[in-house]
Each structure stands twice: as C-alpha cells, then as structure tokens.
Amino acid sequence: MPSPRQRQLRTWAFWAVPVLLLFLPLATNAYTQFIVNGMLISVLVTLGFTLVIGNLGQLAFANTAFFGIGAYASAILSAKLGLPWIATIPLAGALGALGGFLASSAALRGIRSYYLAIITLAFGELMRWAYLHSKPLTGGTDGLPLPREAMFGISLSDDTLKFYIFLGVTVLLVKATLNLMRSRFGRAVMAVRENEIATASLAIPTARVILVSFIWSGFVVGCAGALFARHVGHVFPESFGMLHLIASFAMVLVGGLGSVLGAVLGAVLLTALPEYLRAFPGMEELFFGLIVAAVLVTMPMGLASLLRRLSPIFVERYYREES
Amino acid sequence: MNKLTSLMAVAAFAAAPALAQDAEWETQGLTDDAITIGVMGPFSGNASSYSKALIGMMAYYDKVNEEGGVHGRKLVAVQEDTACDSAKGLAAAKKLISQDEVFMLQGNSCSGVALALRPTIEEAGLPWIVAHAVSDSISDPLAGNIFHGVPTGSANGRAMAAFVLSKPGTENVAIIEHSNDWAHSYSNPARDYLKEQGVEPTAELTMERGQTDATAQVLKLRQNKPDFIIAALYEAETAIFLRDLKKYGMGDIPVMGTAGTDLENTLKRTGDFDTVKNYHVIHSYVDNLDGEKMKPWGEMIHKYYPDEELSTFSFVSIGSAEALVSALEAVGPDLTRSKLIAALEEVRDFDTGILSDPITWTPEDHQGVKGSAVAGFVDGEPTVLKAWGQPY
Questions:
Q1: Nearest chain A Cα to B117, which residue?
Q2: Most buried of the four, A50, B87, B144, B318, by CB within 10 Å?
Q3: Please, what is the Cα angle at A166 between A159 and B80, to 5 degrees?
Q4: 3.40.50.2300, 1.10.10.10, 3.50.50.60, 2.60.40.10: which CATH number matches B155-286+374-391?
Q5: Which of A31, A278, A284 has its CB closest to that of B98?
C-alpha cells in the first residue's frame, strides 16, 4: 500500500501532467498537435472501454457504438440545430449514456460472455447501418460536416484551441472516473467482476452496478465522440466500424486491462505508433501487429504493470486508503 | 513630402515581415532543382487496392524527371498513407503541409477522406489536384486552390444518360439501382440529364446488394418494355441482373452500367457472351486498356513499376499529372503557388491523350473533366464509343 507521502506524490503527479501539457503547443506544429489531440480522444475511448471490459469484467463491445452516437449527436446538433459545438459535448455524452443504458439491458437479462459480446457487436453494426440509412439526418455515406465555428475569436479548426478544450474534457473525465472507481461504487464494480453471485449475496445491487457502469462508459465515450467530430470536422459511418473497435481493444490490452493509467498509456502509445510507422509505407500494419504482440507477450498485464514495478505511486488500488 | 516618405517607410518596415512570410509561403516546398508534391493515398487498410490509382501519376513524374524535369526542377513525390480513413487522412495532410512543407498536393482516392480534407486544405491554400476520388462535393462549391482532374460522379452519371439518349428512338428508359449513395451518385445526375432532355424514367427499380436473383425486377421491366436500362449496380449484381434479363427473353435490351463495373470482368462473371453483348459501361479512356492508344501509357508504367499489374485504376491519375506539368511549364521558372493556381485556371480543352474527355479549369469551375466515353461490345470486340454506334 502506498504511504501517505506516496499518495500525495501521486496526486501531485496526476495534476502535474496536464499542467505540463499546457505548454505542449509551444513545441508542436499543426501535424503533431493533431496527433496529440487524437491521443486525448483515444484516452477517453479506452477509459470508457476498460471500465466495462476490464473493471466490470463484461465481454461487451458496444464501445464503438457509443463513440459513433456521440460523434453523430455532436455533428447533428451543430449542423442541423445550430448549437455551438462546445455545448454539444455533454449532450453527446448523455446520448452515449443512453446507448450505454440500452447496451446494458442485455447484460441485465443475464446474457454474459460470448453471447454478450455478439449482442453488443451487433448493436455497433446496427448503429452503423442507421448512420448509413438516415441520410437526411446523418448525410449517409457522404457523412456530415460540422459547420465552421469560432471561439474567443479563434477558428475551431485551430488545433491548439482544440487541444486546450480536449485536454480540459479529458482531465475532467479521467479524474471523475478515478473518483468513481475509488468510491464504494468502484469497489462494487470490481466485486461484480470477481464473483457476481457472491456480490449479490452481500446485498450489493449488482444490476444497478452493471447499469451505471455501462451508462458511465457510454457517457465518457460519447463525449469522446463529440471531440472526434470536431477533430476531423466531418463524420462518416466508416469511422465507427470494426477497425476502430479492434484498435480500441488493442489500446485497452496494451495499456493494461482495468487500469485507468493503462488506458492512458495504451491510448497514447497506439495512437502515436502508426504515425511513427508512416516511414514504412505498406509495412505499417505488419510492424503495428508485431509491436502490439511483443508488448502483450512480454507484459501480459500491459504497460501499466511496468510502471507499477517502477514505483508504488502508480499502483491503482480502488479501496479506501487509511489516512 | 518628407513626412509622407517617412510614413511610407514606416509602413513598409511594418509590413516587411508579413510580406516576407507571404513570399516564403508562396515558394514553400520549392528549390532550384525540385518541386515537392504531397501524394496521399490508401497505401494500407481495406481499400489499399485503390493505391494503384496513383501509380500512373507517379510513373508520369518519373518520366518527366528523366526528361530533365520542369524548368530544371524534378518532381519529388512525398507519399503519405490515408488508409482510406478520415482521421488518418487528416494527419497525412497536416504532416505534408506543416511538417514536410510540400509545394502542392496531388492524388487522393476515397471520396470520404477527400471531403474531410477539404476544409483543412482550403484553409492552407496550397494547390491540390484530386486525381481519383469522384465526389462532386470535393470541388463544388468552388474552392480557390482545389482542382478535380478526373470525371466527377455527376459527370459520369450525365455521360451515362447522354449515351442512352444517343441511341436513335430511345424514349422509354428504366433505371435499376442499389439503394445506396454510391448508386445514387450515378443515377441522380443521370435522372437530371434525362429530365433536361424531356425524358422521364418509366420504371425505377431497386436491387439490393447481395441479392442473388433479379426475377422480380426483370418481370416488372417486361411489362414496361424499356428501350434502354440504366443499371447502377455493383459488378456481382450486374451479372445476376443481365443473366435474368436474358433468361426472360429480354437480352436484346441495351443496358448502361457504371464505372464500377468492367465489361470483360462482367463477361467473366456471367460466362455467357449473350448476356453482355448489349451491356455498356462508363469508360474514361480513349481506348480499351489493351488497345493501341493505351499501349504507350502501359509501357510507361511498366518502365518505372515493372511489377505493376495494369488495371483501370493504374491509368486514372495520368491525365491530371499531364495537366499539372503543362501548367508548371506555362508558369516558367519563376514559380509560386499563386502563379500555379492561376496557370491551372488557364487550362482549356487540354487533350491528355489518355482520358476520353479533355481537361478545362476556369476561375469559376475547377471540375475539369465533364464527360466520359462508354465501352461496349461491337461485333464481339470490346470497343470504346463516343455515342451509340460511334467508335471513339
């Protein structure tokens, strides 16, 4: 268990990262800033995913559906209803949460394991079908462009402005998720993962735990969808298919299943890696696969386990620590 | 007077950094012996087969370079992968523009990626010639620096309808299509053209993707007795539709297909010449792929890319590369981005010798290729046609 000093150090370390990141735009160009912005979005996607698949232990793959719901909600609210994009972020999160609620209904009916995996995969594909075939609303295969917009007199196509907004949203949601996981609820989530029947026998409402986990996961990933919509400026159905799901799953596994720190590490590494591999046209997929396989073989608990070995301040224990 | 001179000097001094920046931007990616061109394409991922569409353009650059370049400058391509994904495509564009600092951009398959790139590239202002993606929305509404160097979806759709109406006595036209945007990108402009010519389709039918039988559609068409059928279907469904047309004794009705199908591939699929003898497809070139007029282009590609297996895609970007080189030559050695854009807007009726229709770019219209030829079997041989019964 970390000592009080180490816990304090952990708190400082948590806040030091975003504070240092505030200065990052001084060292980036439009391209590298764009990649960094993509990393922040991936952090949220991975965070929402790992909550359900890692912490709650449910083999559910509706993550990409939540992401698409958030992105399309943001684009539709901006383009069709004229809402400022920034106002669409919580609304996209709310619709993502609604998606989470729908996805949890299968789990609440006792469907588990591979069956839940297939049902949630089908949910994702159903959503993609809906984006394709609701042309008046979603633009169909042509996608839906977000209107050009400015904040504080700066165009929202500016990657630096987007970075500060994305960073704010990411820090807020990561901190909220950490707090949630360190609460009584977080402990119940992990109890469900370990043994659902035993948890229920302790008068913990497991159905509610499952429901809230899916809803929170949907909210976080829905918000990420809204950020993604502004990130690319034009949402297309193809962005929310199996490839995205596989990439997100790889981020969860490489970072470390069920770890918030792992979600961050996995997202950062696997968003940056394809960009470094641009130098090997035609070989990117091969190198990407090899690197992911190498990480998983040498570190089955992900990159977070490596940091945990280096210092106890990286240990994530979601029980109440004595002060 | 002295005061005025001083004021002007101060103004000039104040404006100097901005002017210098403008001058620097105008010649970014340019040296005395090289013009760097950012080439984006799907080199990985599910749609990587579309990267073949950039081969012709790259081979043409190599040919120009071997002949000494343009005003002594070699065309240096910097390739970036879009993986046919909008986020990856944007990263590629931003890398080329802000990190590699290329002079201009050319290429792009995947209309979705090109549409996502449009605002970024329009804002960046450097010239961009789209050499494969066909969506009209990439270059319409007009963006000052974006040029389309291949027939757009609407150009192809209108060419289909024009060919149909070029058959004497055609009054009764039917349309069969998939219920997706790909099909609509052909069928809607075709409908518009027919309407302009006073022709209303007498039957409009849907055949879904993956359908393995077209009996219902064919029986419906038998009641209508169309003079010509426009089929906006993928190749597999086209083969099924043609097979069923013949089966129900309607094999003599001519059918007009999209650029998404290939004449000889369709024949291979049906395995019966009688089913395709009246089938026609959009074909953007002056000759069959193995025809005499295409032979030099095929040889050029093989000279620089010996392993390239030639297909329709291999040639598609050559025309726009030729138009680019012609504009670069017209500008002269004192090249800037603005001068190149101005020169591209002066390209008129440029005969590429490979595309069936010439390229014309004006300040008001950057969609350069307005039509397309058609391929069909004439006396059992695949033949490129300008209009019904008129070989190209």
A1: A232
A2: A50
A3: 45
A4: 3.40.50.2300
A5: A31
Across the interface, whether the CB atoms of A233 and B119 are under 8 A apart is answered: yes
Residue A255 contacts residue A262 (beta carbons within 8 Å): yes
Name which of A35, A135, A228 is nearest B91 (Cβ-Cβ). Answer: A35
Parallel, antiparallel, or unpaired: how do β-strands B390-391 and B381-387 relate?
antiparallel
Contact in structure between A74 and A230 (CB atoms under 8 Å) = yes
A239–B contact, CB cutoff 8 A: yes
Q: Is A163 on the interface with B (CB under 8 A)?
A: no
Q: Where are the domains of chain B?
A: 22-151+292-370, 155-286+374-391
Distances (CA, A) of B350 to B36, B251, B292, B322, B356: 24, 39, 21, 9, 11
pLDDT tens digits for range A86-140: 999 999 999 999 999 998 887 777 777 788 889 889 999 899 999 988 989 998 8
Q: How many CA atoms lie within 13 A of B150 on its CB side?
A: 28
For residue A320, pLDDT beyond 70: no
CATH of domain B22-151+292-370: 3.40.50.2300
Give, in order, the Cα–Cα distances in Å from B167 to each of A203, B162, B238.
80, 9, 21
Task: Determine contact, residues A205/A295, Cβ cutoff 8 Å.
Answer: no
Average pLDDT over residues B102-110: 93
Interface of A with B in 19-48 (CB under 8 A): 29-32, 34-35, 38
Band of pLDDT at residue A323, cut at 50, 70 and 90 = very low
Residue B168: asked if its preceding bond is cis (omega within 30°), the reply is no
Four-CA torsion A184, A186, A187, A188, nearest 10 degrees:
90
Q: Work out whether strand A234-235 and strand A144-145 pair parallel, antiparallel, or are unpaired.
A: antiparallel
Rounded distance between C-alpha atoms, residue B355 and residue B315, angstroms:
9
How crowded is the C-beta side of A138, counted as CA atoms within 13 Å?
Answer: 22
CA distance A302 to chain B (A): 25
Using the predicted structure, report yes or no on whether residue A319 has a pLDDT greater than 70.
no
Distance from CA of A217 to the nearest CA of B (A): 23
Three-state DSSP state, B12: helix
CA distance B110 to chain A (A): 11
CA A157-A161-A165 angle, to 5 degrees, is 115
Check: CB of residue B388 under 8 Å from CB of residue B166.
yes
Q: Are the CB atoms for A223 and A44 separated by under 8 Å?
A: yes
